[in-house]
Amino acid sequence: MKAITFKKYGAPEKVLKITEVPKPTPKPNQVLVKVHATAINDYDWSMVRGKPYLYRLMFGLFKPKHPIMGMELAGRIESVGAEVTRFNVGDAVFGDVSESGFGTFAEYVCIEEKSLVNKPDELSYEEATSAPHAFGLAYQGLEDVGKIKKGDKILINGGGGGVGTLALQLAKNYDCEVTGVDSKAKLDMMKSIGFDHVIDYKKENFTQNGKTYDLILDCKTNKSAFSYPNLLTPNGAYVTIGGKLTSLLSIFFFGRLATAFSSKKLQILSLKTNKNLDDFIKLYTQNKINVRIDGPYPFEDIPRLVQYFGEGKHEGKVVVQMGKA
Length: 325
Fold this sequence. Notes:
Blueprint lengths: L1 E4 L6 H4 L1 E4 L9 E10 L2 H8 L6 H4 L12 E9 L11 E5 L11 E5 L4 E2 L6 H6 L1 H14 L7 E5 L4 H11 L4 E6 L1 H9 L4 E4 L12 E6 L13 E9 L4 H16 L4 E4 L8 H9 L7 E6 L3 H9 L6 E5 L4
Parallel strand pairs: 8-9, 8-11, 9-10, 11-12, 12-13, 14-15
Antiparallel strand pairs: 1-2, 3-4, 3-6, 3-15, 4-5, 5-7
Helix pairs in contact: 5-6
């Protein structure tokens, strides 16, 4: 089978190669999935470069432990292990597979059944692969940690990406006023999908414009931790879902201090993988949410697309079509 593999860390377009590798065989608790669509994520960008260097403790100190990247998929089950009880051959499935290993940048992958759910017929493979990671971050960031309320004023830093475009729709279901921060190239798209206000991060520093918010969802975490409390209303919450490691560490330590002496909260989301896929399916079938797809692109474009993602040029979720259903 064909797969995108890499043997050393480096720039995506230099180290990622299309390779012929053996088709895997499922273990007793695994299913073999024919991948129809996958997506690009921040893990891929970090994994291929081995940066920040802390990631090498997880992915391999000197060379990658996972030669095939990719953490989201939508596809169809081709065979099942002897201990599998939830799925049958022919079932359409999707999910974030990062807790069972990686490997979705390939024509086939073996995955533990716990990392997948059934795909509804009305949800395309391309839409399905866009949802697991980004929707989980958006939903848990706003609902579980941020405790979103009707009519809140919300800011989403990185509003034009996969998480931001989903978070906007969740916020609008609560009739919130939403401000989005991103690059100039994305602002027209962001206004077209419902952001009430947009900020070009190169022209305006949202931490210094004097405006306050009930809830901030930060997909970038690229400002000083000390600037965030001043952006929050008296009982406001700041939630980061990822970003620069140094910034995340400062949020971790300063957030505890700020919470101890104030009703404001600074928190880091610890994602519970695939927890909210039933919520996504429900909202999707009720026409209360959809996914914004950048693509779909062909399998051969994955090296370029990882670089494209890393440069922050994508609008919504970057999706790769692996094959027709």
